[in-house]
Amino acid sequence: MDSVEERTPELRTLQQKVEYMVEKTFPGQKVSGRVFADLVKERGGSLSHSYFSNILAGKVTQPSEDILKALGLGFGVDWRFFKEESEVVDDVVAGLQFLAKRRTGEISGVAGRGLDEDGLPPELLQFALSLLEDARGKQDAADGAGVPGEPEG
């Protein structure tokens, strides 16, 4: 059912994953190591601009968990995406594809799956609730609901 463009790119190395996330998170922009390091710092993490540049250059292949967590903060994704043989790579890619389709209107509903013991993260719950509100508004309009506060008939 997936078209060729929607296939998950090969994301095996840390460099491939970071390049992919730069492309998806900052489409059409050149993001310097310094800009990304500042973004990580704003979000409560720590990553040097030179270390980020070395990751993009493929010079760093086995960073510490703290570095992976900093990358996750900077890109706004689960840090485990950057681990080798990550279990969340496909989920993050699917999430990005979902968001892209949502923005273009190809998707108008949501179904949760793969929840852990913590349930939905607050951001995802808020996003899902906003989708439901949008859908209800569209359904009300389609059903010919009157202006709120005015009697029907």
Question: Can you characterise this structure?
Answer:
It is a single chain. By secondary structure, this protein is mainly alpha-helical. Helices cover 51% and strands 0% of the residues. The protein contains six helices and no strands. It is elongated and about 60 Å long. It starts with 13 loop residues before the first helix and ends in an 11-residue tail after the last helix.
Q: How far apart are the first and last residues' alpha carbons, in Å?
A: 46 Å
Instruction: Determine the structural class based on helices, strands and strand pairing.
Output: mainly alpha
* Helix/strand order: HHHHHH
| Strand residue content | under 5%
Helix count?
6
**Major sheet description:** none
Uncertain residue segments: none
Number of strands: 0
What is the rounded Rg? 20 Å
Describe the global form.
elongated
What is the mean predicted local confidence, pLDDT? Answer: 77
Question: Which bin fits the share of residues in helices?
Answer: 40-55%
Give the topology.
Elements: H1 14-25, H2 33-42, H3 49-56, H4 65-75, H5 89-104, H6 122-142
Notable traits:
6 helices, single chain, mainly alpha, 153 residues
Task: Compose a concise summary of this entry.
It is built from six helices and no strands. It has 153 residues and is an all-alpha fold.
